[in-house]
Design goal:
34% helix, eight-stranded mixed β-sheet, 241 residues, globular, alpha/beta
Length: 241
């Protein structure tokens, strides 16, 4: 285990002041970078811990903010902000690019070796960065099998890994099929893992507030999905290039 240094990074995006969580591995050398996007409720300790875990593996990691430092535990409030955001690829890309700018300004960052990992809304933003032609080594999206502008999907030039629960009503089979069709038509190197019996946000530990119907934690699949994400990074973004 390496010594990890963390700090909060303040930056502007989507008309808000955002507060990202930056995690740095031990040393002074440049390292490959992972952008970590949260579920629609916003940045929480779950994503902060994932960024820290990635730094322990040797990556520079930034868990980015969605809502100007707010965590939206009220489902109605969260949907009121996230649904228009998910319908606006340019806004999603703006949030993603602002976070990438923070990473690129970090002296420990290797700007030529970046991956994006996102959950739910954060996963949709990771995909939009790929569709916008950002030079990424890998994209991973959990619960975020969103489709975009089909004419732009061919701009994704890295492997895409996606994970979803078989019982997820927010990302049902029709949405999975649309995602697969888009990736396939664009010639993207894609993979989809369907975790049997899992609901939406199956990776996220239980919370102490009301959640949307169809949301639920599955501890075994949460661990498996994390291992799958790490395996993708080992394959496409090794710490020692």
């Amino acid at each position: 285990m390496t010594t990890v240094t963390t700090r909060t990074i303040e930056y502007a995006a989507d008309g808000l002041t955002m507060f990202g969580h930056l995690a740095l591995p031990a040393g002074v050398d440049r390292r490959p970078v992972v952008l970590v996007g949260p579920e629609g409720v916003g940045l929480s300790d779950v994503e902060r811990r994932r960024a820290d875990a990635l730094a322990e593996l040797g990556y520079v990691a930034l868990a980015f903010d969605l809502h100007g430092g707010r965590y939206m535990g009220d489902p109605e409030e969260m949907l009121a902000r996230c649904m228009p955001l998910l319908a606006d690829p340019d806004r999603m890309r703006g949030i993603g690019h602002a976070a990438l700018d923070v990473l690129r300004a970090e002296p420990r960052t290797d700007p030529d070796r970046i991956a994006a990992v996102g959950y739910g809304t954060g996963g949709a933003i990771a995909l939009e960065l790929g569709r916008d032609g950002v030079d990424l080594r890998a994209i991973a999206t959990v619960n975020g099998l969103t489709t975009g502008r089909p004419s732009e999907t061919a701009r994704i030039h890295c492997p895409v890994w996606a994970g979803v629960g078989s019982e997820d009503p927010i990302m049902p089979p029709a949405q999975r099929d649309a995602f697969i069709a888009e990736m396939q038509a664009a010639g993207v190197d894609w993979r989809l893992v369907v975790y049997g019996g899992a609901l939406h946000a199956f990776h996220h530990p239980p919370v102490d507030h009301i959640v949307l119907p169809g949301v639920g934690y599955h501890p075994q699949h949460a661990q498996r999905a994390w291992r799958d994400v790490v395996d993708l990074l080992v394959e496409c973004l090794p710490v020692a290039d």
